[in-house]
Amino acid sequence: MIDTTEIKGLVFDFGGTLDTNGCHWGRNIWHAYEKVGLLNMQLTYEQFVEAYVFAERSMGKNVYVMPNDTFRQMLNVKLNLQMDYICRKSVNCEEGWENVNVTSADESSRYASCIVDVLYNKMTEQMAHTRKVLSALQGCYPMALVTNFYGNMHTVLNEFNLNTYFPHVIESAVVGVRKPAPAIFELGVEALGLKPHEVVVIGDSLDKDIIPANAIGCKTVWLKGEGWKPQPDSDIPDMVISSLEQLTAVLLNANQKNQITI
Is the peptide bond before 180 cis (omega within 30 degrees of 0)? Predict the structure, then answer.
């Protein structure tokens, strides 16, 4: 458990935390593939992972996303990169891909569009719950956002009406530091004007959020959901939760008790 008597501020991760309530985006996208016709594609999970990694690396090396691009536009880039990769492998009948049934650019684009719709609708629903959590916490704690993102985080926050909760946004593409480097969390703590032990970092990734934040002395809450890989238990986080609502209950109750004591 967290000793909340010294807690004065919160740092949130975005992807996998605020937008999917703990589900890694790789898993989130895979479930959307399942929903829109995976049987027709005859795609295995291993092949999906290959396409997913290809798209992520491509977006990391090349500028596909502009600062004014919305989350839907970013998803569209990501999914078209994935489906183009799958289509290319299928058309060329590369070893192991002979049975994959995505054989034209039109078909690839159609699948990508359907998957984006599923993902965006699901995320929109989740953001309604996220706003309630952040609204409740905002009156008690200043908050900052620390995220590996593509340079369009402010646009995305406006898109989902989250901009008022985060006066401080530390975005990897802007500051030139990426998780899991502890330095990016130091920037978040500094933005709040607090000391590390006065800040709770909340994230879905043990490796990219919890371990580096712990290394600089922050308290940590691991939002442990469906990970990219099986996630073993760990004694590093100060608290493990399975939904953002759990975090709210703990911090609000603790904050109210502290105010009464004072």
Answer: yes
0.90 surpassed by pTM? yes
CA-atom Rg of the chain in angstroms = 20
Name the β-bridge partners of 168: 144
SS3 state of residue 58: helix
- 128: tokens are 């309604």
Model pLDDT, residue 254: 53
**Positions of the chain with pLDDT under 50:** 256-262
**Amino acid in the structure at residue 13:** D
**Residue ranges with strand state E in 28-184:** 143-147, 168-171
Long-range contacts of 80-84 (CB under 8 A, 24+ apart): 80/108, 80/109, 80/112, 81/54, 81/55, 82/29, 82/48, 82/51, 82/52, 82/54, 82/55, 82/112, 83/51, 83/108, 83/109, 83/111, 83/112, 83/115, 84/108
- Dist. CA 115–CA 108, nearest whole Å: 11
The torsion defined by the Cα of 126, 132, 133 and 137, in degrees rounded to 10, comes to 150
CA-CA-CA-CA dihedral for 14, 18, 19, 23, to nearest 10? 100
* Angle in degrees, CA 55, 63, 166, rounded to 5: 95
